[in-house]
Amino acid sequence: MKRKLGYIFTNLMALYFLISGLSVLFDVPSKLKRIDLNAINSDGEIAFILIYTGLMTGIGAASLLLQYFSGTWIYSALLTTIIIASFIVFRIVGSIMVGFLSPTQTNFLAFEFIEVLAGVLLLRKEKFKIYLPSLS
């Protein structure tokens, strides 16, 4: 059962990254406005697409490929859990630098804590062991 939950978790996380990244392509100006950013010209929009869409879809694709080539969900879960945990850390660092945490950021934080908790619990239940090939 935990194996099945691991695959469900990693596939949901990959889907989250892919959809989040690709959704920007449908309406860049509204995505920029939603996060209170402005692009001065088309170069700014292209840079935003490159950074946000490239990063998010890259993480989603890497998660799926890692799962496929390793034959297990463990490494994909580790990858996505670490990345979401880094989002939490730097969301908190950013809020400290700015001086407050907006309700939007608080909502993102809550959701990210749930994602990381799920990943950690699944990895812990698996008694996360790295299976390395023999070096001899």
Briefly, what is this?
The chain has 136 residues and is mostly helical.
Keywords, separated by commas or semicolons:
mainly alpha, 136 residues, single chain
Task: Summarize the structure in words.
The protein has 136 residues and is mainly α. Helix content is 78%, strand content 0%. It is globular and about 50 Å long. The mean pLDDT is 89.
Per-chain topology:
Blueprint: H1 2-23, H2 28-34, H3 42-70, H4 74-98, H5 103-125
Helix percentage range: over 70%
Q: What's the mean pLDDT score?
A: 89
The rounded Rg comes to 17 Å
Instruction: Report the count of strand segments.
Output: 0
